[in-house]
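Why do we care about 3D structure at all? Because function follows from shape, and shape follows, mostly, from sequence. That is the central idea of this module. The next example makes it concrete: a single protein chain, its amino acid sequence, and then its structure expressed as tokens.
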Amino acid sequence: MHKQKVLILLLQETHFKLGHLPMLRDRYYTSWYHNPSPDSHSRGVSIGLHKSLPGTLVDIRMDGEGCYIFLKIRINSTLFTVVNWYLPNQRQISTCRSFLLQLAEFAEGQLLIGGDFNFTLDPLADSITVSRAPLNRQLKSLLTHFHSLQLVDVWWLLHPQGKDYMFYSAPHRSYSHIDIFLISNHTLTWSLKASIGDILLSEHAPIYLTLNIPNTLHKP
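And the structure:
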């Protein structure tokens, strides 16, 4: 990640367990925030900040299940709420709505959400599978909620004709777009690049977002 010039690192499904966190001593990523799973080796999210990030931590909030971290941080003169979440593989949409309600009480400044959604926002466009279902009522309602928050899927915005996927499921023989960056609509002019890396350590490929924030280049 250091070689890729990543300044804000969002990790999901770390499988870190409460009371057994790794030290992660690293000369590049010197600030770490972990939300481990309390009782199992599933879930878990972490955020690592590169030492060269010109950011100041303002506030932080986590749930008790190892599913999300809300990080309020000032980068140069801009206040961001950076969200890293992992939605479980059941009741994803209702869980997402619950997280958004909790986020509404916390968020300030520009909003950036990144994570493993475990479902596609548009089943027809975001997956290649044997059977693809259209949008259902619950998903349409969630997308309306995203729209009301002025949140945009950056990768699709920058690749409107693209066909690339971050996750492959061998049992389902499917490729899908379930690892997603959403950003505030009024920060779209800061979006320089969104890209997908290679699948190396899991069945997920890393995704990268490059933003130009007041004359300084950052890649969360």
